[in-house]
Design goal:
Elements (H helix, E strand, L loop, with lengths): L2 E4 L14 H9 L1 H6 L4 E7 L2 E14 L14 E12 L8 H18 L5 E5 L3 H9 L3 E3 L2 E8 H7 L3
Parallel strand pairs: 4-5
Antiparallel strand pairs: 1-2, 2-3, 3-4, 5-7, 6-7
Helix pairs in contact: 3-5
């Protein structure tokens, strides 16, 4: 069985292939340098240091009016957020329901971080229509001004994903 841990130089990335080359290359070449520079955090599922899945979280903020397309008169203009900038599962493990479990793992980590702010939003970009449908299935809502960028309030995530 695999464990979730922060990406490190000791992880074997050579055999990871999710079927989307941009994600494979991003994991191999960008994830660790961004993590080392505190710009992002990449977490992996690994089995004896062989990576089988990953997701990356980036500090973010979201304008309150971007969720609905309307201006709001209450509260701050922006809300703290975590951006799920990349998430992928090795092809050998796809089609087994593990993508949903990986998303729940990522969202649970977001909730823990956002609880310190006592508010917050989780934001994700969908690479295509299938990915957008995947996020929507788990309760994410497309933003009014960017249909492939989706969001979910942290408090809704606790309920939607039974966290």
């Amino acid at each position: 069985m695999w464990v979730t841990e922060r990406l490190s130089a000791s992880h074997d990335l050579d055999k990871f292939s999710c079927g989307t080359p941009v994600f494979d290359e991003w994991l191999r070449h960008a994830a660790l340098p961004l993590s080392d520079s505190d710009q992002a955090r990449t977490f992996v599922w690994s089995d004896q240091n062989k990576v089988i899945a990953f997701y990356t979280l980036v500090p973010h903020e979201i304008r309150r009016d971007s969720r609905t397309g309307k201006r709001t008169s209450s509260g701050a203009v922006a809300a703290p957020a975590l951006f799920l900038s990349a998430m992928a599962l090795d092809q050998r493990f796809q089609g087994k329901g593990l993508g949903g479990r990986l998303l729940v793992d990522a969202v649970a980590r977001c909730i823990v971080a956002l609880e310190k702010a006592d508010a917050g939003v989780i934001v994700a970009d969908a690479i295509d229509h299938d990915a957008r449908a995947f996020y929507q299935h788990f309760g994410f809502t497309p933003l009014a001004n960017a249909p492939f960028r989706l969001a979910m309030r942290a408090r809704d995530a606790r309920t939607n994903l039974t966290l």
